[in-house]
Design goal:
With 105 residues, the protein is mostly beta strands. Helix content is 0%, strand content 36%. The protein folds into two domains: 50 residues, no CATH class; 54 residues, no CATH class. The strands form three sheets. Strands 1-4-3-2 form a four-stranded antiparallel β-sheet, with no helix packed on it. The protein has a three-stranded antiparallel β-sheet with strand order 7-6-8, with no helix packed on it. A hairpin with a 2-residue loop joins β2 and β3. It is globular. The N and C termini lie far apart (32 Å).
Length: 105
């Protein structure tokens, strides 16, 4: 069977169980996506599956641009330690981050 194009994939349809505020990082199985707009519980909305976002990061050393980042849903932070139990691949650092936030693509 040949593949059939559905859409470009920047956004994924999602119906949340609870209200999602703008900027919520949402775990979907083995990946994460981000709410660009508020989505009321039980309503169809869209989550960004790509783009560049600023998120909270785990404290520690400078995160260099291009470093692989992981989302820790328990701590609600991005970090570089992919060996931690429960973390999910999130993307790469879009710029150096020495502060409490990092950019992710």
């Amino acid at each position: 069977m040949n593949a059939t194009f559905i859409h470009s994939g920047e956004y994924l349809d999602h119906i949340p169980a609870a209200d999602l505020p703008v900027g919520a990082v949402v775990v979907i199985s083995d990946s994460v996506a981000i709410a660009n707009r508020p989505i009321p519980a039980g309503s169809l909305g869209s989550l960004a599956a790509c783009g560049v976002f600023e998120v909270q990061r785990a404290p520690g050393a400078l995160i260099p641009q291009g470093k692989r980042l992981f989302w820790n849903p328990a701590a609600q932070q991005a970090g570089i330690d992919g060996a931690l139990l429960g973390v999910l691949p999130m993307g790469i650092a879009a710029a150096e981050a020495a502060d409490t936030a990092t950019t992710v693509r």
